[in-house]
Amino acid sequence: MITAILRVLSSLKLAIFSLVGLFIIVLAGTLLQIEYGLYYTQNLVFYSWMIWVDIAEGIRVPVFPGGLFFGSLLGINLAVVSIKKHYFSWKKGGILLIHWGLVVLLLGAVIQLAITQESMMRLVQNEPQFYSESQRELELVLIDTSHSDTDTEFSILFSELSQGDTVSLGPVDIQVKKRAIHSEMKPYTPEPDHARRGVARRWQFESRPIPKGDDVAYFSALELDVFQNDKSLGTWVVSLEVPQVQPLDYASDDLLIQIRPKRWYNPYSLTLEKFQNEQYLGTTVPKHYASTIHLENPITQENRQILVYMNHPLRYLGKTYYQASFEPSETVSILQVAQNPIWSVPYIASLIMSLGLIWQFGVGFYGFFKKGRRK
Asked: Nearest Cα to 279, choosing from 332, 311, 326, 312?
């Protein structure tokens, strides 16, 4: 049984099947990206085990294996072939390195997908910033402001909430009455409901089809029943379309509730001191722009000035800050933040494969040279 499985996993047919599947995935992803944008296409086609398509509201069907499926098959095939074909020899050592270099590359891509974090940091001139925000992930957050020196935040990802769920968030329990990934706010027209609080007194939301594309905005929303010690604190509506925090009628308004982009907090602050924007002569097209940033870390006692510009990022405590954009006022700079602990894996994999190619070429050249000398 095991022998039969190994025979299938190490077969050339499986390798060709995986490569053809990856070719189809790349082709389909390239075409879909034109209409749906990079982010949606990546998650639908490349970063999935199976491609699902909506054929009706609430009905999804699988249509084709995804990039993770074919990539995993190819990685397993290369690993099994390397062991089964006995490449542990001087003459075949190069082939072994080539195979395992590709395995490391594929494995690194899967791990990177799971652990890499990407976010944006908006720096307003002369205002310290301690956190960056996700462009795609949202969170429902409860903020306890009862302490004079610090605020305590309790949060849960929007993606982890479903209609009908009841979750604990700090000192309160929250029941999700209604949920929409994309919505439109409309005036609340029924008779006044004293149970509805905050924004919910004047507004309600209706679900809308999810827009596709990289530059489109969508407004997620929740309708919630909030309880504290089994006592109702009312019905609340939180939405990205109405993004302000809302005080709960509890403990003298010390509790605030909000839906917002997911945040990652840092133990240090970055402050924009100066923004430079050079434009091509006679146009408004940016030629070069850079941010002079002040970094302050009270833990390490660091206090220094840094210049961040295109292709010259700030690397600090496992995070990389790239100059991404700016606002027209030129008093706001936008940095892209990437946290990728295994950023070096593709370079290591490429080095392993390069050594394998050099090794195999060297062995072949040596054999050819040796055979020529005999003649």
From this structure: 326
| pLDDT grade for 132, boundaries at 50, 70 and 90 | very high
Type of residue at 116: T
* Averaged pLDDT of the chain: 87
User: What are 297's strand-pairing partners?
Assistant: 302
Let me know: does 238 contact 258? Beta carbons within 8 Å. yes
Torsion of CA 187, 192, 193, 197, to 10 degrees: 60
Q: How many CB atoms lie within 10 A of CB 257?
A: 24
Taking residues 242-267, report their average pLDDT.
Answer: 84
| 268-300 pLDDT, tens digit each | 999 999 998 888 887 877 788 899 999 999 999
Taking residues 3-27, report their average pLDDT.
Answer: 89
Whether the CB-CB separation of 222 and 259 falls below 8 Å is answered with yes
Give the C-alpha distances (Å, rounded to integers) separating 267 from 74, 122, 316, 317. 41, 17, 12, 10
Beta strand 152-157 with 166-169 is unpaired
State the pLDDT at residue 174. Answer: 92
Spatial separation of the C-alpha atoms in residues 305 and 25, rounded to whole Å: 45
Residue 194 phi, psi dihedral angles, 5° rounding: -70, -15
Residue 351 parent element (H or E): helix 345-374
Identify any residues that bridge with 304 across adjacent strands, giving them in sequence order.
Answer: 295
Please count the CA atoms within 13 angstroms of the CA of 197 that sit on its side-chain side.
19
DSSP state of 211: P
Contacts of 297 (CB under 8 A, 6+ apart): 267, 268, 269, 303
